[in-house]
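If I may wish for something, please sit down with the protein I am sending here and say whether tokens and residues agree:
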Amino acid sequence: MPAESGFERLITRNSRLLQTYAVARDYSGSGRPLLLVGEAGTGRRLLARALSEENGGTGPVLEREAPDVNRQSLQSVPPEATLHIRNVARLPRDTQEHLVTALRDASDTTVPRLVFSSLPDLPVRISSGDFLPELYYLLSACEVHLPPLREREGDLPVLIEYFCRRTTETLGMPRLRVDAGFLNYLGQYPFPGNVAELEMVMHKAVFWTQDQRLSEEAARATLENHALSTVASQIMNSRHTPLTQLIFPSQLPTVAAARKQLIMEALRRSEGNQSQAARVLGLTPPAINKFLNRLENEA
């Protein structure tokens, strides 16, 4: 599958979101800092990268969590790079004060090209005294709100087809047909984790299927497995202990099917790198290659 770049990675047919992207492009072209606001999983990181590429950014997009950003780290960013500061509400107070001064001074060359992202709770942080209102006023001049997936009318089927195609092509799997029952069943789930959660669910659906199509039954089994995994993860994380037990659907797969799904998951995590996937699983690269060849012959 050809590598995607810029706005090609931002899949949508939703008119509201297309308008949001157009506004973000206009703001980004001004050279002023940009503030991207949205729930987790709405694509703030992808939009930051797309805007950098759209405006001729030849350098890297560096990402930093806000608590790790200080005056020295700002000055160390290469001039050709874009710095994406995530969770801006958690910026240290002295860094906030420095940015207020620097952004007000148009002649200050110590501040790199900046994109900030935040959850929708920034006004609450201001009210509690954790975030300087002066900095928010400077950033809100170019503020873009990304809607959650549940408000992106018409986008769920498009994204499901996209993630299904991308997963199968990346892993060399045969193309799967997505049934209307699969689409309708997933459409009943609210996806609180937004597009990032949908991508995870689609990976599970593709990996677990033993058919050439994704049916309503596959959607039901996938969401059941996803719910169990999510609950188990939350329980284990709350106890600060690692999750060591695998979660299986109600009907156990065969050993051959489980092996296939395990190899596919390793390939997904390694972005198709067979040597890396083999190392993670304790296999040899020829064994992974043999598996993919057999899969291709079965298609």
Summary: The CA atoms of residues 34 and 115 lie 5 Å apart. Residues 235-245 have pLDDT under 50 and may be disordered. The first helix runs from residue 15 to 29.
